[in-house]
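Dissemination and training. As part of the outreach component of the grant, students in the summer workshop were shown how a complex can be specified as a set of sequence lines and then modelled as a single object. The example used during the hands-on session is reproduced here so that future cohorts can follow it. Participants entered these lines:
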Amino acid sequence: MLFSSFIFIFAFLPAVLVSWYASLYFGRPRVAVALCVAASLFFYGYWNPSVFWVLTTSIIGNYLLGNGIVGLPPGRRRKALLIAGLTFDLGLLGWFKYAGFVGNLLTASNFRDMTSAVVNTALPLGISFFTFQKVAYLIDCYRKPPTRNYSPLEYAFFVTFFPQLIAGPIVHHSQMIPQLWRLQGTAPLRRAMAMVPPALALFTIGLAKKLLLADSFGRFVGNPFANASSPAFSFLDAWGAALTYTMQIYFDFSGYSDMAIGLGLLFGIRLPINFFSPYKATSIIDFWRRWHMTLSTFLRDYLYFALGGNRNGPVRRHVNLLVTMVLGGLWHGPSLTFLVWGLLHGLYLVFNHLWRAVVRWRMPRLLATVITFMAVVIAWVPFRAANLVDCGRFYRAMLGLDGVVVPSSYQRVVEQVLGATPPWMRVGDLYFFAGAQQIALVAIGLVIVFALPSSTILLQNRSARRAIRQPAFAAGLGAMFWVSLVVLFGQDSATFLYFQF
Amino acid sequence: MRRFLIFFAFGSAFAAAVTGGCLTALLSRANELVLLDFDRLVRRDDVLWGPAFYQGGSYKLIRYRLTRPDILVLGSSRVTQFRDFMAPTARLYNASLAATSLEEAQVFIDAAFPRHKPTVLLLGIDPWWFSPQWAEHAPDLSLNRDLGEEGVNWRNIIANALAKAVDPHFLAALMARPLTADSVGGRQPVGYMASYLASGFRPDGSRQYGEELIVRQPYFDQAGFGYANGFRYYRDKIRTNTDRFSYVGPLSNTGLAALRRLIRTCQAQGVEPVLFLPPFPHAVYQEIQQSSTQRDYFARLEAAVAAVAAEEGASSFNFHDLAELSVSDRQSIDDIHVDEIATAAAFLRMRETSPGLRRLVPDRDVAGLQDRLNRPQTWATPNILAP
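and obtained this result:
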């Protein structure tokens, strides 16, 4: 069940909301939580009931292991239990997500196949996300146990709460479970009601980002990435596709995050911000503080620090950074293309840290933003490419090593700008670039990305929350909601990109 | 909160009124709202069926059931020119475009045969059907999406209309051009394509290509389509292995198995399957032969189809090179579609050896068609035999 589906918006969500608020109204917060857990399990099982057991086994196993760790005195047995728990979680993730990948690496007959993603239809949805949540919980139980024991119901709610179950944000137990303790009395009901306008606003903005923007960009992305090996693939095809995908993944993931946070707020539950105008970043370090923020936090706290962080000198620090980013890349998918994406970002980060340490010059903000943005665009190519052969072909075309093909309709413009058609440019047909329509769409995307504030301002800024209550803004949101529904009506299905990770 | 919700609802209602009004106006202007009268129109034998926003799979199936043909033609846009007058003694229905892959052909006959079985199935097979990549793209081109539905799929119509509503070229055409009658056949136009471009399905399921052949659009010349432009558009595609000609490489075993299944389904129900590879203009086929990638793929494909047909006891015909039918490249609609004259020549060639066709198309019908082909002055247009 997708957030952007009629069954979710008009059946599932209203039913769960009514049960939640009715239970709170009658002073039964435990019933509210229990019904929400049941609904979330239904939401998960709706996708693929055959892997339902993975989620439930993982919840039961981790809850028992966590309690076991907390109950034991510091020592070997405690550590052994932690290792058993981590092996259980990472073993499940490894078996479902990476077994096929390793098999493919060993059996592939050529480089193209070896670097192609292995499609695993049996992969339990969201396993990468809920595994990380549970790993964090187990490690915290070992290092710094929660101040108050969690009940099985609270733990199940933390893992399964449907707005974040499939594609994050990766919620920390200490962010989620204490909110359940404050559900007693009528105050939470009033608090939650007060948050309905920003919640609805965030959900609507997210829905529009997904259906009106991300899916529009998506129409221009599939064809060029599928034909990168074609002899007709050229410079404009490659740059057009790379920029369009950059916009698609931004609006897709940003839209999903807005919807997830908005849905959480509808229940009076605050989910962490996951996305804060990342393309406005002025450095790669800044980018990773704005893009998939909960993943960055997890990788920093539970992987980078565990590897030693920056405690063992600059060389070790950079190696740790590279290892963290490569593993972060592989977390996105069982393919060497994701590994290369992670490696690229790791190298960017190392370079960024070295630059800061060595160069005293402060780069102008605009230049820093443009360079960061271009670096991110270049790194999205392996992220989206079917394999590394196609990725190489993409980079070759982006560098113009096969020349630059310009359609005859643009020839006059080129000649006006450059005086004459330069020798490295030739006039011909473009097969994977949609021309003016694609350029206009990317331009609109860039304006939205760079000129408008992040939608999460609604959570952080009181005056923004007041502004959305203005009649014109509320009516505008209503209109946006309806237009999104009309577009949704015309679609068969529209899956979020981040659901595959 | 209440104030916010009231204005939110007001905004939604206002947007609903605006989008609903615009959509209704667009569908009305495009002459697509006539589909509200679908049940009556689908039974009429004097309409040119050309809705732009409607997937036509269920239309073809309903027409097939109403026609109860002896000869059923099935395939893609490359078999649209078989006409009922080519077999005047028998009944012929052309379900072209109801199958853009072997899987879709199977879906169509599985839906069609339980109500009525033809004597002969003429199955036109496209080269790309045997590429594994085609199977991924075919659903996007499918007319069969609504095959299970007996009426109009309004969701499809609205989805397609919405996609077109943001296309400035379409909107400009809609605003600029007055409605035209079907100047060739004089049939009542149904839908945008028929009303504005004189294009659509005739009652026998064949397609009138008004846009290309009657009210020729300037963009055909710009793109380099057809005989007048030396078939430049698809010759470029062949040279660069793109578009329809990107589907090359090893033949899909799944495709060959699907072909066997189709043949066996027909034979089990007493229907004679006749397989044929529809023609390409000679110039296009020559271009194919000059590209080693394309030549190899076509050679493998032609041999494989012939072998499967022989093993399963079905007849098969390879018409890929139009010149082998002794027909000029002028008898083409565009680079990959041939016209009625070329199609009639292929039909007569198949009739020579197919037992079912020989029975259904007696010698006098053959002579009549041959006579018509020999007298171009009697043709309705240089590419259309009869209105």
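Chain A has a mean pLDDT of 88. Students were then asked to discuss how this feature might be tested experimentally.
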